[in-house]
Specification:
By secondary structure, this protein is mainly alpha-helical. About 90% of the residues lie in helices and about 0% in strands.
Length: about 190
């Protein structure tokens, strides 16, 4: 499976470059409309989904199961299509989802920190992070304008960081592919 992924290293690099481009565009051009941002996100989600489906297909050839890749790819493609067809609804839906997710995950994290306080040190850091996340979620739900600004900023930075990680992994797979090719050549000799 690793050899198959190494052959397709360029897919991760392409995904990373697109993610970084999307993130930088959103940061450098704050006057960009959210509709345009939704459209760019839609295209990015479509390409990412197609890459995930392609990777799932390759994994299925070797392992027989690839439903995580398929599910992730299908969800990405559906999100991309919806964002392109209904940008305002996509933005509203993303904000609502983001706010609810932050509240639920933040409160869950704080709850978990409370229950593991006897087992680990400095659990208050986990609890504080969870409470901060829950408060951010409430702010997004109560003040959508703040939510829009925070969402654009968060999406931008997540896209850039995710893009950097994808490029790093892609280059590592490229080197691995070169090493594997050299090992196959020496084994044949």
């Amino acid at each position: 499976m690793l050899a198959t992924a190494a052959k397709q290293w360029w897919v991760l690099v392409l995904q990373g470059v697109l993610g970084i481009a999307f993130g930088i565009l959103a940061i450098l051009n704050p006057a960009i409309t959210l509709v345009t941002l939704a459209l760019v996100f839609g295209v990015w989600a479509l390409i990412s989904g197609a890459a995930q489906l392609a990777e799932g297909w390759r994994v299925a050839e070797h392992r027989g199961r690839s439903w995580p890749f398929a599910l992730s790819g299908i969800v990405s493609i559906v999100a991309g299509v919806l964002a392109i067809i209904f940008p305002p609804a996509a933005i509203s839906g993303l904000l609502l989802f983001l706010g609810v997710w932050l509240v639920v995950s933040g409160l869950s994290e704080a709850y978990a920190a409370y229950h593991i306080r006897r087992e680990i040190d400095n659990e208050w850091i986990l609890a504080l992070g969870g409470i901060a996340r829950a408060i951010l979620g409430v702010v997004i739900l109560v003040a959508p304008v703040v939510g829009v600004i925070l969402t654009v900023t968060a999406i931008s930075w997540f896209a850039i960081l995710g893009g950097l990680m994808a490029i790093g992994l892609g280059w590592r797979l490229r080197r691995l592919h070169g090493t594997m090719g050299g090992m196959r050549g020496s084994a044949a000799a």
